[in-house]
Fold these 2 entries.
Entry 1:
Amino acid sequence: MGRELDLLLRERVAGAAVLDGDFAADLAAPVARFTLDGGRRMRSRFLWWAMRACGGAAPETPAALRTAAALELIQTCALVHDDVMDGSPRRRGGPSFHARLATRYPGAVSTGTAAAPFASSAAVLAGDLALAWADDIVAGTDFGGDSVRNGVLENWRAMRTEMVAGQYLDLHGQATGARSAARAIRTACLKTALYSVARPLSLGAAVAGADPRTVLDLCAAGRYAGTAFQLRDDIEGVFGDPLLTGKPSGDDIRSGKLTYLVAVARSRAGSRGDRAALSVLEGAFGNADLTEDRLLRVREVLTDTGALEAVEKRIGRLLAAGERRLAAAALEPAPARRLRALLAAVAAPTSPAARPAPAVPWRPAAPEPPAGRPAPEAGTTSASSAAQEVPAADDGVTPDAVASAASAGPGPRGAPVPARPAPPAATARRPAEVPVTSASAATVHSAADAPATPPAASAADAPGTPPAASAADAPGTPPAAPGPVPVPPAAATGNPVTHPHSPARRVRPGDGPAARRPSGTTADRSSG
């Protein structure tokens, strides 16, 4: 995938150089480098192994690699925009995109008294460029037939909208001072669970032409694991080592971002009448000048109230629920083991949490409130609807879902991608920087893919056998438009593509889904 991404980005940077050298050097080439040189490529791995687990092999590989490359560009867009919105100075262990631009143009200002700084404005354009490139790649990909293309485009359209909705809820929570644990879970599901795990799994299954029931099971498994991933990220944002997480510790607290961890701590402190703990949280939340000493006190409160332990337990329950849904899916055995390992590892801590000793006299912990159970599947056979299921919040909070339909027409057939021209000579004021293949480019096989034993389910969450299929899960033909998008009450206020290293595409008879492959095939053995 790294090689595919490099080839695709070289084309686009060369095209940008024809337009203007400054544009290519300041935006296009840095977007390419940012995409190539960082990140775990987690979404690409989910897409790849879902495709393989659903029976995809050599004929589906070119489409899977191109779609995975597009996912990496979507991630670049999301990170660049997120850092601008949060004012984050660092990303992936180095300066964030807008911080690099500010260093390159230290005296640059935007016209107008109310205009955003030049670096932030330019970074927004860089994110837009990454999004445009991602869409172009998907539009120009041959998926082997209209039914497969429509399934991929349905998931692609839904994923982009969900990502924006989740980011908006994140901003809205900061602006309004939202405190609801249910709201925090809802935001985590939209912003992270669907976009980072569930949709990549659905895209991989769609590329392979999987049946709707398999797509439902993969989507649900990804939703649970993705929510656990965001809850882990909330913990790492306060307790994690910045050298390992790639971002400053305590940024979520300083920016006033609603997280489930803080929401649970507030709820528990309030129920105990612990005014000292509430005072610490209120004084730190949204305080951009929060010192390390005061951040240490926040960590103590998160630990003393039992919030940290409660979130850790919830992560375990979510991972166990995801494991059960994955086990219920009809998948190829060897690739399924890869998926199981990835889902188990997605919420693993980067380092042991720095849990400080309480600075206040010890007191017994309050009784653990009854944990909310996962929300039941909605009555639909659409893969989009499955992705929208929101895991219930803990502490007895279960948001009711109010359906609001989202519709979109079928995506157009993509135009063929022309053969790669030789990079044209730059005609601009200074030569553009063209990304060079990084030796550290991630590959599909890595140590992170090694099989791992998933955490055991809690007694409350672990039935003896996988849950029986409900009528809502019955196979059927998914609609062309995304399914209903639940909103919690709180929200109310074709053509073949030529590639130098890709095998020829095979069009399936009747343009239907690929036939299931028995276990033990060459495709299975090669995935180990």
Entry 2:
Amino acid sequence: MKDHSKDNLSASIFATLIAWLKDFRQRWSFKNLTNLPDRLKNIWQRLLGSYWFIPTACIVLGLLLAPLLLSIDQHFDRETVKDISFAFTGDADAARAIMTAIAGAVLGVAGTTFSITIAVLSMASSQFGPRLLRNFLTDTPNQFVLGIFLGTFSYSLLVLKAIHKFDVGFGVPQLAVTFAIALAVICALLLVYFVQHMVHAIQASHVIQDASNDAINNINYWYSATCDLQHQQNMTAKDIDRYQQWPMTPLYAPASGYLGQLYVETLIALASDYGGVIQLHTNLGNFVTDANVIGHFYQRPADHASLLQKTKTSNLALLPRRPDGLFWQRFAAGLAIDARLSHSNDIAYSLGQMTEIALRALSPGINDPKTAVNCVQSLTTCLSIMLRRQPPSPYHFYIPPHDSDTDDMAVNQPVPAILALITKIPKISDFIDTSLGEIRRYATADLMVLKALCQAITDLNYARVNSAQRQTLLHELTLIERAGQQNLAYSELTADLQAMCLQARAFIHDDNAKHLHFEYVSEFNAHIRKALETQAS
């Protein structure tokens, strides 16, 4: 009976293992790993986002260095060490005392640095917002300092353990102890650096600058500095106007959470293999549930021109197929659903960090409008770059390979690109509304911030490239003026804001505004300036 139960258990385990390997092969096939660099980058970002990775690596390095230097000590000339002024030349008791002192002191300093880090994280969470904690946790210098402390501690323990055994056979490990002394001096210098670094890290200007740099990096990732001619040619594809008339299958999120990453090449390969077009209706950073329809799959008709091409490759489906179990597995592999909103290449997430700092600064508990103004200025820099760049295309194509049996003349002919994937790309007006617009809604009674927002609109006017962007700026300017009219406490403040908005509106309407300098001059200041000019003349 027991043997029969063991056989059933073994068979069950074997069947489960086979099913897992089959699922792994289907999910992580070569076609699904076409975005391998992006997947590796995503894993690397997650490792850096964890506070344990770099310190753990330093501990492992210390554990490897100790036996390495001890083995070198066995073949090292002792007389040569005596000629080095800073080398350790004491006996075993002195070596034990030094290594014990280094291990104890470094471990105490590591605890101090960890306590300082926790205190800084607590203050940053209350002042800047909990979503800004990742910037402190992923601070590489901070992780390296703690890691070197812990690595020195682990190295010292192994050397201390080996001193007695080593002394009996080969003498005191002078080189290993000398290296430990050098590490102790480095740790003392790093402690001074750590305190100075943390003092700068908690300053609002430093936090805002880091968030701005992160947003600019994401903008450079998505927005091209030059026009893509190939994209302009692909835009003439007829499928863009036809695909919504094809048979449609709704696409559901594979799990509940935040959409953290889209693996575009994986989805393109999936759409090409099934002979259709995938359209996604959600952006990066959006929350979805497993019951949400986040897109649709449009299946090409059987007589579609692209499906009638004769080819022997597997990259082009000759017959369209309806979604099956393998389709859903591969679709899930093309998305990264996170349980919590985390850092990615999402521009909105990066801009939202500066927006959150501004909103915290405008709260009654903090009441720091200067910090909010600094956030507005940094957001203006990021939005200005986006205004004059080419936005990413929502349309993604693939080019089918030539058949090996075709003649040379056919090979030399250009192959038309085939529409495979349509993603949802936020417009510049959406970014302005979720960044400057959010600050406007919280700063309705603060003239300083409202005037900073008005100045930001005029600064963005220098970067606009079309009339649609002009209308977006004018719309936001109108909302700023309306917010001041309805919420400012005194009529003088309202009149001041209205005068600035009036001058800003005239400046934006001027077609020659990009060659002019905008400077708001209030009525009172204009009167004083005119009086001074009259007296001078």
